[in-house]
Design brief:
Elements (H helix, E strand, L loop, with lengths): L1 H4 L2 H6 L8 H26 L4 H36 L5 H11 L2
Length: about 100
């Protein structure tokens, strides 16, 4: 089992741990923090009874920001975990990818 736990494919799928580059972590964290800031601003707008159209515009902007983070993480997943699984002969990972794609469509 120890040898299995050390392979990249096993790291991504079974242990639910994915090593990420520091650059990716930094970028994703910054984007998430920005989206959280936007959400806090939207919350304040609602509490201040701001115009619905303005609130909806801000909600659309934060939704777009979150989708951008999702695409970035998905690309990293495809380039690392999925490639490792396929190289190891595990094509069942394609089903997982299809389920993930369906969540974002």
């Amino acid at each position: 089992m120890e040898a299995i736990a050390q392979t990249g494919a096993e790291t991504c799928a079974h242990m639910k741990h994915t090593p990420r580059s520091e650059e990716l972590k930094h970028d994703v964290t910054c984007r998430i923090n920005r989206a959280m800031g936007q959400l806090n601003g939207i919350k304040a707008m609602v509490e201040e009874d701001r115009y619905c159209g303005d609130v909806l515009t801000q909600l659309a902007a934060v939704e777009s920001a979150v989708k951008a983070v999702s695409r970035q993480v998905m690309q990293d997943h495809l380039e690392t975990c999925v490639v490792e699984h396929i190289q190891a002969g595990d094509t069942e990972v394609i089903d997982e990818v299809m389920r993930l794609f369906k969540k974002f469509m």
